[in-house]
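Bit of a strange request maybe. I'm writing a small parser for structure token strings and I need a real example to test against, not something I typed by hand. Could someone generate the tokens for this chain?
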Amino acid sequence: MDNQEIDTLLEKLNQEIEGIQADDEKGQLLLRELSADIRELLERAESKQPAPSMMDRIESSIEHFEVTHPDLTTALSSLFSILSNAGI
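Reply from user aminoacidic:
Good idea to test on real output. This should exercise your parser:
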């Protein structure tokens, strides 16, 4: 997957995140952090290498929103897989 396709996925994911209202404090924090992580990745022109902490936040978010926001967790799972398969 090239950087343009990753950017498209990131933009879609960011829109999904902006449309969610978390019911709990942990969810709100995860959404803010994910949004910041996504913006950071989008700003990187060549390398889409996230910090290890970002990968941990993606995993935590998948677990946290698995039941309440299945579309978000599907998109996060796709992003996690893409980044992992790219050796990131």
